[in-house]
Amino acid sequence: MTIDIRKYSAFLEQVAGEIDIQPGKYQDAVNRYRAVGRWLEEGSYPGCTGKLSIYPQGSFRLGTVVRPIRDGIEACYDIDLVCEMPLRKDRTTAQSVKSMVGDRLRENATYKRLLDPEGRRCWTLEYAEQDGVGFHLDVLPAVLDGSGLLSTAIAITNKVGSAYSWSASDPRGYGAWFDSRNKFAFDRVQLEQKQKLQRGAPLVFASIDTVPDQLVRTPLQRAIQLMKRHRDLRFDYQERIEYAPISIIITTLAAHLYGNELDEYSALSGIVRKLQGHAALVENRAIEGCLATLGLIQRRPDGKWYIGNPVNPAENFADRWHEDNHARARAFFAWVVALQKDLLNILEETNPRLVEEHLGRVLGTAAVTRHLDILVLPAPMIDTPPRIHITGAAKPWREG
Amino acid sequence: MTEDLQRQIAVLTAFHKGLANIARHDADTVVSGTLPFEASADGLETITESFEIELTVPDAFPESLPRVRETGGRIGNDYEHHNASGTLCLAVPVEQRRIFLENPTLLGFVNRLVIPYLYGYCFWKKHGRHPFDEAAHGYEGILRHYLDTLGLADEAKALAVICYLFEHGYRGHHDCPCGSGLRVRACHGPALMILHRTHNQQTVRSDFVAIFEHCFAKFQDGQLSFPTPLRLQILRLFNRL
């Protein structure tokens, strides 16, 4: 058996669906964060005029959520929310913005109970597990940053020890950039996917119009989810975890390199191939002309690395790649090689048992086992019954 | 119906397109329709057939497995492997769980348990024998399953095994319940581990009751004797029921 690409694409799509946030859970999380948003909006804050806004950022906003695995066990989803206060950065301080939000959350008995001790950038609300899946809501206090590159730029608070400072960020700008990279595929897959989602969860969605855009997944988003899950399993132990490629780097590079392929396998293999095209940089050698022109991953004369934030070139996502003898850069390119071997070369594997074993190890056994039949069984054709080869059948019995 | 179950039903019906009817019934979801298949098995002929079936999936799925009925009236009373209520006896419960857990989805359940059963029926109808053998009825079938899986002969040993599993789960350093005098891990460890992993609270308990009932009848007739430690263990376990 060598694996058919169409089947493999269908399989990857199912596995990505498995590690994604489920539609009901998504709705649940949205309801919770809107409630938090309303509570924060209704507060009164000294010096604030105008409306506070609360919106998701990160993988929850981008549709690239992956159920985290910690020490081999599936853990809670992290959902990042920006709480943007109607204040000017130059008329307030990071400390007062952070504490205004914290104080307001503590005024609510429920949130007070769910609230973790103050974090570096955010306030975390821990929602308990329901049907085994919980989530953390990270609320990041922020103000609009008039000095930013785009009008969407914000300043978020940063606490080190007991000192507070501002950091630049632009989640809305980044989100809009990501959507623009995703748009071609989104327009082509959304109808079919919304129909499927509605049929799959009729109790959650009354009609396809009620299925939110945020639940549609293009091959780009699926590819990012699969890459992140592969990363999570590959770096799931202490010595390696600090060098694991960070999600924002994976997401940014994948979105840049995505060539609007409409099936999962082609999307993933296109991205991985172009990432591999950058590998010579580790040996300080030149890379192919057109990749070099893109300048997505650069190695500067001083030996430092640069992967720019597409909406703010001053922000370098790879600012720590030169540390420890380029440990993060090395780990990144070794991981890209592993992606090729584990997720793409697997098509050549002929033994179904090994396919199951390998894919289970790199994507998670639970997610893989459930959909293995797509790969192993011949696809049912119209008017011909599914073909099943029986092995290890049970003996029939009777109760009494 | 949980979302997970909805998705599993969607995957099932995408594969077996004839299973198109889905209804809610109290705490069950009933999936029914036509199940055509072309099935083969190693060294045996290919059979192409189609049955009307009804899968009753409890809300507690996958902890509790679906019940299956053949609703087209094809499988008559001459075939012994269905219950008075008409549900098909796919296998003894622990074996059914073991096979199910190899691919714990509704589709896996149909492909690994229901279709092999229907294949077995068709084969039997044609040739008068069972392609995959058959299990003894009732409690005896359950007990035989333990003896066969562990390669034991003495029925009291099966009782010792289920007592061990029910009381402790799996304990590698205990004496093996087969009575060899070896530690479990040096004796029936792997097989016991599989049984332990297959069981849940409910199934280990019902197998304990089944095997005990079977053995106790023979004990009363004087056909079987229980050593004292086993008697004490049984008493302890009865307090748990």
Based on CA atoms alone, the radius of gyration of chain B comes out at 20 Å
Structural class determined from secondary elements of chain A: alpha+beta
Q: How helix-rich are the residues of chain B, as a percent range?
A: 40-55%
Cross-sheet strand order for the largest sheet of chain B: 1-2-3-4
Mean pLDDT of chain B: 90
- Please trace the helix and strand order of chain B, writing H or E for each element: HEEEEHHHHHHH
How many domains would you count in the coordinates of chain A?
2
| Biggest interchain interface, per-side counts | A-B, 36 and 56 residues
From the 3D structure, determine the CATH topology of the largest domain in chain B: Ubiquitin Conjugating Enzyme
Major beta-sheet overview of chain A: 6 strands, mixed
User: What class do helices, strands and sheet pairing of chain B give?
Assistant: alpha+beta
The gross shape of chain B turns out to be globular
State the end-to-end distance of chain A.
Answer: 43 Å
**Total of DSSP H or I helical runs spanning 4+ residues of chain A:** 14
User: Strand portion of chain A, in percent?
Assistant: 15-25%
Describe the biggest sheet of chain B? 4 strands, antiparallel
* Gyration radius from CA atoms of chain A, angstroms: 23 Å
